[in-house]
Amino acid sequence: MNRIGITTTVPVEVLLAAGYQVTDLNNIFVTSEDYSEYIDLAEKDGFPKSSCAWIKGIYGVCLKEGIKEIVGVVEGDCSNTRALLEVLELKGVKVYPFAYPHSHQLKDVKEALDKFMALFNVSREDVEDVREKLNKVRALVKRLDKLTYLDNKATGFENHLYQVSSSDFNGDFNRFGEELKTLIAEIKERNPIDKKLRLGFIGVPPMTIDIYEYVEKFDASFVYSEVQREFAFPRADEHDNIYQQYYDYTYVYDLDFRLKYIKREIELRNLDGLIHYTQAFCYREIENIVIKQELDIPILNISGDKLNRLDSRTKLRIEAFLDMLGDLKEGRL
Question: What GO MF terms are annotated (predicted)?
């Protein structure tokens, strides 16, 4: 089975139907003990220090892990991906661009997906067959999410991990599903997690994944991870076909579309506050202006760069934010 890398969530059903083993390069990068070597490799090859660490990490992983083919999202995700693909092509990697249409019209989504299927020589019937199988696994991820925000038994990190891993199902969706079944059975036997503050995480998945554990020191827990949840397509079972499913994928379209669902989840999950994570040198940092204007809930914006652990300044800001939320909840402010 040939291996193909992806730069973010793409129509994985198409790649699986074409017989590929799919690898999300982000997940290899951020979970590596020596993650910085991927960044160093990119900077050695000329990537500027002022460019996004994720882009450099993807580049480094692609070369070091010997990825020969890659699908890169050139519209709807990182604005630097197009240049990344050009450099990787120069290095001998076969690249396949995919674009989520800016128009966010169903007919344009259908056209983009049909072109993607034709590129990999697979039929819609084959793709729908794979989608049906994947949606059974996604239903398990959805159950884990409910164990986080309804039953209060799964941790925020567990929810984050399996949602973000749904971009490639760790290379084997059958094994991923069995692992989830075992985990869910174990979580059901736990006592509920009793935390005063219910937090939401919005924005790109963090490099600083210790944030999930850190907030628990202050009587708080994350019960919502916005983009990670979208990677798992939580509304896939509501749609009749792959076109509708990817039309309803919020992360890659306009901010108003994302905010509609974020507002819904704030109310559904009874959130006390949001932490909005952005990556340094990313255009999405600017979106924080709109987000703070549109959402009627306390929001802390934090930014990450090359570190995969929270720095002291960010920890202090989070602690102060959680103290403020606690005072608000107890009526002291």
Answer: hydro-lyase activity; iron-sulfur cluster binding
Same domain, 174 and 250: yes
CATH number at residue 38: 3.40.50.11890
**Of the residues 72, 103, 119, the one at which a domain ends:** 119
One-letter amino acid at 62 equals: C
Q: What percent of the chain has pLDDT over 70?
A: 99
Separation of alpha carbons 94 and 45, rounded Å: 19
The DSSP 8-state label assigned to residue 75 in this structure reads E
What digits encode the pLDDT tens for the residues 228-239? 999 999 999 999
Residue 119 burial (10 A CB sphere; 0-12, 13-18, 19+): middle
Tell me, what amino acid is at 71?
V
Q: To which residue do tokens 């987000």 refer?
A: 291
- Specify whether 257 is located in the same domain as 186: yes
Q: In this structure, are 271 and 316 located in the same domain?
A: yes
Quick one: tokens of 62? 């692609």
The segments of the chain whose pLDDT lies below 50 read none
Angle 23-54-248 from CA coordinates, rounded to 5°: 65
Return the pLDDT at 304. Answer: 83
Question: Which of 119, 139, 157 marks a domain boundary?
Answer: 119
Number of structural domains the chain divides into: 2
Token pair recorded at residue 22: 């799919």
**CB pairs under 8 A, 24+ apart, for 268-271?**
268/149, 269/149, 269/198, 269/200, 269/223, 269/224, 270/198, 271/198, 271/199, 271/200, 271/223, 271/224, 271/297
Strand 299-304 vs strand 94-99: parallel, antiparallel, or unpaired? unpaired
Domain identity same for 112 and 136 = no
Residues 267 and 142 in one domain: yes
Domain containing 131 equals 124-329
